[in-house]
Amino acid sequence: MNCEVKVKDRIGTINPIFTCQPAGAQYVSIGVKDCIGLVHGGQGCVMFVRLLISQHLKESFEIASSSLHEDGAVFGACGRVEEGVDVLLARYPHLKVIPIITTCSTEVIGDDVDGVITKLEEGLLAEKYPDREVHLLAIHTPSFVGSMVSGYDVAVRDFVKKFARKGPSNGKINFITGWVNPGDVTELKSLLKEMDIDATVLFEIESFDSPIMPDGSEVSHGNTTIEDLVSTGSATHTFVLNRYEGGKAGQFLEKKFKIPSVIGPTPIGIRNTDALLKKLSEATGKPIPDSLVRKRGIALDAITDLAHMFLADKKVAIYGNADLVIGLAEFCLDLEMKPQLLLLGDDNSAYVNDPRVKALQEYVDYPMEIVTNADFWDLEDRIKNKGLELDLILGHSKGRFVSIDYDIPMVRVGFPTYDRAGLYRYPVVGYGGATWLVEQMANALFTDMEHKKRKEWLLNVW
Amino acid sequence: MPYHEFDCSKVIPERKQHAVVKGEGEDLTSCLPKGYLNTIPGSISERGCAYCGAKHVIGTPMKDVIHISHGPVGCTYDTWQTKRYISDNNNFQLKYTFATDVKEKHIVFGAESLLKQNIHEAFDAFPEIKRMTIYQTCATALIGDDINAIADEVMAERPDVDIFVCNSPGFAGPSQSGGHHKINIAWLNQKVGTVEPEITSDYVINYVGEYNIQGDQEVMVDFFRRMGIQVLSTFTGNGSYDELRGMHRAHLNVLECARSAEYICDELRVRYGIPRLDIDGFGFKALGDSLLKVGLFFGIEDRAEAIIAEETARWKPELDWYAARLKGKRVCLWPGGSKLWHWANAIQEEMGVQVVSVYTKFGHQGDMEKGIARAGVGTLAIDDPNELENQEALLKLKPDVIFTGKRPGEVAKKMRVPYLNAHAYHNGPYKGFEGWVRFARDIYNAVYSPMHQLSGVDISKDDYATDKGFVTRRMLSDASLPEAERASPLTGYTGAFDPIAALRAKTDADYPQFERKTSSQAAE
Q1: Distance from CA of B119 to the nearest CA of A (A)
Q2: What is the CATH number of the domain that holds A62?
Q3: pTM of the predicted model, to two decimals?
Q4: Taking chain B, what is the end-to-end CA distance rounded to the nearest angstrom?
Q5: Domain range for residue A113?
Q6: Is the ipTM, as predicted for this complex, more than 0.90?
Q7: Most C-beta atoms within 10 A of its C-beta, which of A188, B120, B125, B280?
């Protein structure tokens, strides 16, 4: 077998690729309208995650902290949650949903967040806010389990679990995008529109690409409403694009409400987008329209200019969230490229048995490594000490110094991408995403040819 | 009554004592807001935690060190690559960060053997680095791992390495400030006095409370070297671990940031009798006075005077060019702690702007005391302002620019208030004479951005001009200036994009050589 799947062979982490669970839950929470997450833990667990997300989106949004201090760590801090909920409700009149997101500290001290919610519902909400629609839910995301990816997955499930109700079929599909960018949402919505499919797009962050308005009044917020979440129990199907970023919610809806769940594929590249459209068509009976044949053709036209001339056999390393990395690797193979190293964010034991990973192991005919629970040292050590040669790196901004120090061109993709302008605005999914990705990769290689004076004259006549 | 009550905070009455407006004829006894108290849960404060105060703010600028956090991976990831403290060893400490990656089984069974294995792995991966700092986090503090014991074991097994342990979990205090204190004292207790430094000058200082944001430290050390002063160590920006172990041999502690590092200076005075001199690298006057004070302490004020004269002649005209154009511009000041008072007066005096508010994230009452004393009548002072209070204040004060962090900067952007990064700077360094001009330049560029003007135009309602294809900053800033000022032959800042590169290229030969005193002279 040429493609090996292994767990990182060190116990520690040198330059982490991912952050911890509460960050994923926080990213989900900003996709919900009239919602402010209350993270139960130290203040850094919120302050830095808000900084991280705001660096990526170049936008602001609200997430609160229970501000765990020493006394709470010693004597229990449930009172901080009670006070935090009251303060939020009193100061944000539009607020309807408060997910209480736990962290390592409050899980270790064993605060009974579910119990606090019951207490608040029977006490504070009934007494002080009797006429107000308020929903509290607990999201347990201890930092010592999983990663930001599993935190996203858990939070999506918990939101759906909290709100979904069975009603008469609403004729819509649930569409769980996973951890994507505003540009991805726009692209996915356009695919759905062309297919004439009515969908509830969940944890929808499209409007985080928002304007400065002349009166200074614009505020970015998520677009998924409580009604949307309630209606997930009445849908015809659930489409989960990213297996590890919404899969749990799909399973829940299938089990509880018998709503069939379609997991994947992550629609990166032509082939995976084709597959998604076919599955959508099969589920809804809607035909794939000519407009999408044309849009697909535009992507193929762009790719044909580039793939066999410039991209073929280029060696690439890819890191980040597992679904993204696998999707990108599949697309790269279709583009005749040779992914050498895939670094999958966390220690999720399911990755080894992922059918897409199995397929890579079966068909890849050159040495490829897939490392789980990986860190950036898995990449850098191979380049620095073990002779790994790369033409391109695909991944998020935290790996920027590998690219800079070893002079390997890099296309920023995933989360976060704070060191390049505007990337949240562009899709990597769908046909639009395929076009954008292939052109970004080509331009990165072109710039590198010129920078290193390596056959830069090739482009004289292209 | 000087307290300022925000409409948005009426429902949390305890907030009322955290904001004041400085009134006419009022002194600090009647207008000092409360500070450094526990944060109100759910208020959406901008504060961080004591772990970040120790690891992210004070610890990590130390350059030749493996910085490893003992806990789940998030604390490490989140505090990595979010600051601009550079170093002259190719930014090792900025580029590499380490986490022991504590998982659930370690929470249950303990994580000490995990830590030990991690330490060995990290030293093995970077054989050229022999120094390490271990930071405790919430999780490992709560499970009670004995980090010091593990560090001692490893030091016994690897005699060529040295390890510093900082026990400052995230929950230890109301904000990052608690972590500043903890790491200061821990360094002093564990490491100071364990290396004997080589003394090469008659004038030896520690430069304390300086974090080399965008090269600030290198700018300041250049001045000290030009004065023939040996900078034994910098705590901690661009600082070296072993140099900082020799802090006890300095003649003077020169303290820049009295919020984050006065603790170590005060203890060095008690334990080693080293006096403390507070200085300020921001602003021509404050910096000049600071260099003079240091010069006076050693009896070499002539060397300071020469530097001040040279730098002032070079940079003052450019500063004045900006000051004429920034006159009366309204500034909101929302830094972490000490810049509140480092900047409040200096930018008013030297750049002509008007400071309309001073906020602090994690400052103590002492910071507010100095900040309010240096601010004008009518200034709004807020301790730990939260999201809604900031927005309410922006609407009320209508500033021309706000100096704050990245994320609150995004809030300001939407409200059409330009922002400058108060913590990491836009295009620093801001210390030094040239740096101060760079700061003025950044303010000017923000305030007079032609795009800022355009963003206020509602093309659906307003009558707007169509006669120009472009507008320059100068057209905007000079419109209401007196003719004499408009005719200035200057065009603003003329320095380089990266002024630090030239400093790093300097060798000993580029600095004046001063005779050492003989031993009998030194005894006098």
Answers
A1: 9
A2: 3.40.50.1980
A3: 0.97
A4: 56
A5: 21-146
A6: yes
A7: A188
